[in-house]
Amino acid sequence: MKFLPFSIFFLFLSSFVLANDGYKLWMQYYPIENAESWQKEGIAKYQINATSPTLAIINDEIKRAGKGFFNFEPAENQENPKLIISKLSDLNLTTFQINKEKITALGEDGFSISKSENSETLILANTDIGLLYGTFYYLQLIQKGSEVPKEGIFQSPKIKHRVLNHWDNLDRTVERGYSGFSIWNWHRLPRHIDQQYLDYARANASIGINGTVLTNVNANSLVLTTEYLEKVKALADAFRPYGIKVYLTARFSSPIELGRLKTADPLNEVVQNWWKEKAKEVYDYIPDFGGFVVKADSEGQPGPHNYGRTQADGANMLADAVAPFGGIVMWRAFVYSENTPDDRHKQAYNEFKPIDGEFRNNVIVQVKNGAIDFQPREPFHPMFGAMPNTPLMMEFQITQEYLGHDTHLAFLAPMYEEVLKEDTFVNGKGREVAKIVDGSLDGHSLSAMAGVANIGTDRNWTGHHFHQANWYAYGKLAWNPYENSEKIADDWLRLTFNNDDTFITPVKEMMLESREMVVNYMTPLGLHHIMAESHHYGPGPWVTGGSRADWTSTYYHQASESGVGFDRTKSGSNALGQYSENLQSVWGNINSIPEKYLLWFHHVPWEHKLQNGENLWNNLALHYQKGVDEARANVKLWESMKGKIDQERFEHTLSFMKIQAEEAAWWRDACLLYFGQFSKMPLPSGVESPKHNLEYYMNYKPKNVPGI
Amino acid sequence: MKFLPFSIFFLFLSSFVLANDGYKLWMQYYPIENAESWQKEGIAKYQINATSPTLAIINDEIKRAGKGFFNFEPAENQENPKLIISKLSDLNLTTFQINKEKITALGEDGFSISKSENSETLILANTDIGLLYGTFYYLQLIQKGSEVPKEGIFQSPKIKHRVLNHWDNLDRTVERGYSGFSIWNWHRLPRHIDQQYLDYARANASIGINGTVLTNVNANSLVLTTEYLEKVKALADAFRPYGIKVYLTARFSSPIELGRLKTADPLNEVVQNWWKEKAKEVYDYIPDFGGFVVKADSEGQPGPHNYGRTQADGANMLADAVAPFGGIVMWRAFVYSENTPDDRHKQAYNEFKPIDGEFRNNVIVQVKNGAIDFQPREPFHPMFGAMPNTPLMMEFQITQEYLGHDTHLAFLAPMYEEVLKEDTFVNGKGREVAKIVDGSLDGHSLSAMAGVANIGTDRNWTGHHFHQANWYAYGKLAWNPYENSEKIADDWLRLTFNNDDTFITPVKEMMLESREMVVNYMTPLGLHHIMAESHHYGPGPWVTGGSRADWTSTYYHQASESGVGFDRTKSGSNALGQYSENLQSVWGNINSIPEKYLLWFHHVPWEHKLQNGENLWNNLALHYQKGVDEARANVKLWESMKGKIDQERFEHTLSFMKIQAEEAAWWRDACLLYFGQFSKMPLPSGVESPKHNLEYYMNYKPKNVPGI
């Protein structure tokens, strides 16, 4: 095979663009420009030192990319290789001038990419997995048309455990899943390893994710039986060469359900021993099992409260069980009760702050980004900064439970970034959430991030093609929580679609503004949790009554003729008192609080003037209208992109964007009709009249909404 | 684009064989041999007369096939076309010598393919859909490397309504579905038309299927609400250009559930009017709606029995409602009750035979191939031949409820063929079931066939790659119930994998023998319905007791120390009396009945000698062993095929075949241990000893088995 015919090939390939269902995610490996020069410089002839299952994967990946980029299969281990992939320990250090210490310091998962004096490209690392990460990074560079900078690339993750949480049930339904059903086919396991499991692991490895929690936090103890552990082992074996560890959710009452004990009291020695035996069994199957994730004492889940014990008592019992095997416990802080009279916002902090420092050193407390529940916008959780003696991990939700489910384009990196970059001001300035999460602020070596997955059986994995970007963005921010959204969007678009700036530039802008657009048409100005009951699909500001006030909308918006918003200042629940003095003073003042948080912390009169001189009601209405206008403008923008990408993904995305625009108007109309009952003011100019009356929206109850 | 570079292309394409997940089914359009000559003769330059959505589909299909076959995009409507696709009415009859009457006689769905005097290829039909069928047929010829015979091809379907029945629920679970979940995403409908809906319609059109029943026969009246009819309409609109009509299952009690009536009595005028109004509403949405499918008075479903009415009363009410719009009613004969003391086998016949001739002329009675329920082998249903005054349609099950679910390779064409070719001997010889089903025997113009679909969200549609062949085979037999299995298997293999006879010949043989293999390791010699309870996964000959005897195994096998088998002769239930005199005499005699039906009709002593001189017990044991041996031999055979097809489908199939071999042994061991309790005889030589004891098998209860 010679280089000459390439130009001919591209001619053909352009007419070869057939259906693209999106399954290949950001690993499209479409033909690149300047293929010849990349060929010569790059991956055409490469050397890969030593063999292992992971190195075989690297090998396959290079060949696959070569076929896509150049329609050419790169050959390994030829003379005069242009690309050398090697663990530091396998490299002949007499041949290459290498800063050994610098690479050693990159640790287990780090890698470097650099040019040798003879202009070979070197991908170096301390482990096979490091090489895998480095290879993906290098292939992504090629696809983007970027060069390896002269000074080289030195990367290592800032966070140790970068995991996806699957809220997948054993019957393959997915709680808050909007892209089909669980990709884990438990029935066929352990005997059949589906190709999709490998493709899943590969996709995660390509963005640095190194763990997966297979089961729903609302846990089923069945997964801890021998029958299911054999299945879990099969998945763990499949994922291992990709550097992915498996974790399971542990139902706190398992000793009763499986072990036939009378109690699950964490201070009871028989219970402790049951867990120790169970952990031993798990590690017999899976020697590198990651550990347990626990949701306890919340939303009906059993936990240490049932026995008058603390969350630390519960977590430590499990931690002791997995400690001999190197396992960890991710103990969720999402603990609240309808029987506690206090503001739901305050309960986790009140529960955990007093036991700061009481956890074993293999426990990490998993804290959602905000104190309520994955709203389109939440101020950061006040636990961040409040527990210096306990490692805290971040839990983001990738699946869009509260952000429009499958059909609403909302690029979430800006939401994640907003929280990570927020300064807690605990003991001074520069105490950003990211520094707490990566352990640097308080010197914790245990660090982790969890993302609640948006992956399902849909042919494109995530329902909306653009929701692939949220999986990708989560991985990138788990690797480096200081990464910025603009770069993530740019890279993702180039890897997923093309390198055409007439496409990239406008679409990237649309992505970057999309989350704010959703906030505008759903919950502007700090409104929150006003979605429909149970399935959370569509607006439901009228939701009230029932068994749990803390699951109703009226609890959160407190709308009345006097105004709207939850008073969390000293005159109200004083949840604000859980934040630093600095934030208490800025956020506690109705005039200095950023307007995006206004109704989160304040009950504000309808006629109160905001910064633009308009009253609250008019501002609210204009925000809703703005969201709708943006969603409609996105449809137009996307339509103008026709022909720039393959038709299948174009049409699919367009169809969803039209739904989003319709539903944005549904949100606007329903919410403004509802709140208008209290404000008793007319809609300001520029805001469209609702299509139907309030009764219509209140009576619209779609059936069989997915995800519950 | 010139012809010369083709040889170069094939060089590349061979290394281009990447992952193949099977989504493309039997429309792989892989590169063909002698591409140059086909190019010149064939589809490179074609003419397509007139435009319509269906003709646009034909156009796309030819281009798609051209790219696959030749890596070349055929061009339409050039000078000197080599291929002309035209409705007879659009053809310039002065240019071509055409037997107009012969083509007209092919009817709505027929087509012809022939050579003109100038050696153009002509695809002619009376309708656009006929042209679509003809185009698919022609492209399949090319892929198989077949020629258009000199005398031409003249095809028309023998059966008018060729429908798939989806037992899909509105929450996307699928009753008896083993390949994931329903491909109908009701939540996204009507606003999002998924590409998979179009691919589904296309696949069906490619094999002549022209109708789809979207919903489970265990019906939910919700689908008849306006909210859902809008969704159904969206699917119907998407399917229409492919010639696929939509049908719905009608829950008999809908007038109560939706219309708030107090009764659903079919003779009540208010009820009749409710259905008339509902039918009108349905046809307002979908002018070519196919009609209703009804399961009534069976397994908990409401029906005319609730009001002391006959099945004809029920069917006719619905028939009158859809008649003004050209709709039909498919009324299922699968009616039986645990409260009827008679053999379940006899109940449908007893219910329907007395009302033969009482149905409206737009009713067709849908009869399962056998009288029990889709067993691995059943004698044909005695209703066939017993109701000359009523059109009867055949219901086959494609999904493998009783044939090993997703992982057992069982090519079902031989099973379908066996029933279709069986002579009922009603009023003489040559009264085959196929002639009743196609209406020719009794002169019915209304004819239909239903296949219970095996399609789901799995990336390859059907779970097992080879189960695609059952969907394909069903379509081919619905088009022509006289087709033979060997040709179907041969064609399917060539379209799906390759034209390599070293692959085709052995794999085809394996396919053709696979169903008998399953019979051997599950239910040899006429045994039936001895599967595990409820999910029917694995053996359960010990299933007994509970609320319904007719859902237990002991009811069907009647094993005791005196022997095994259900006596359905005169000395027993005399279900045999429902068949023709001829069959009564042959099948009624323990020595003349084909051994495959022995235990279906006779209770036979263990020591009774069969034709081979061995006793029943030894024969039973040897059949089980044979099935296991065959399943294991298939694994070996398949392993020897490595490299002949793409790795992804190869590995997937191998993995399933290994499961099948394991489960065949599970069946053998469990059944022989169970029946051995009664025979009290040792296993004959050549039969392996069971791995575990009977208790082990009886206690093995897998969790979360799909499909219920």
From TrEMBL, chains A, B:
Mention one GO biological process in which this protein takes part, according to its record. Answer: xylan catabolic process
- EC class (word): hydrolase
The GO terms describing molecular function are:
alpha-glucuronidase activity; xylan alpha-1,2-glucuronosidase activity
Q: Does the keyword Cell wall biogenesis/degradation apply?
A: no
Q: Where is the Alpha glucuronidase N-terminal domain?
A: 25-138
Limits of the Glycosyl hydrolase family 67 catalytic domain:
142-461
**Active-site residues?**
299, 373, 401
Domain Glycosyl hydrolase family 67 C-terminal residue range list: 462-687
Q: Which GO terms describe its cellular component?
A: extracellular region
Matching InterPro entries: A-glucoronidase_C_sf, GH, Glyco_hydro_67_aGlcAse, Glyco_hydro_67_aGlcAse_N, Glyco_hydro_67_C, Glyco_hydro_67_cat, Hex-like_dom2
Alphabetized Gene3D superfamilies for the sequence: Alpha-glucuronidase, C-terminal domain, Chitobiase/beta-hexosaminidase domain 2-like, Glycosidases
E.C. number, please? Answer: 3.2.1.131
Q: Which family does it belong to?
A: Belongs to the glycosyl hydrolase 67 family.
Q: How does it assemble?
A: Homodimer.
Q: What is this protein called?
A: Xylan alpha-1,2-glucuronidase
Gene source species: Belliella baltica (strain DSM 15883 / CIP 108006 / LMG 21964 / BA134)
For this protein's source organism, the top of the classification is: Bacteria, Pseudomonadati, Bacteroidota, Cytophagia, Cytophagales
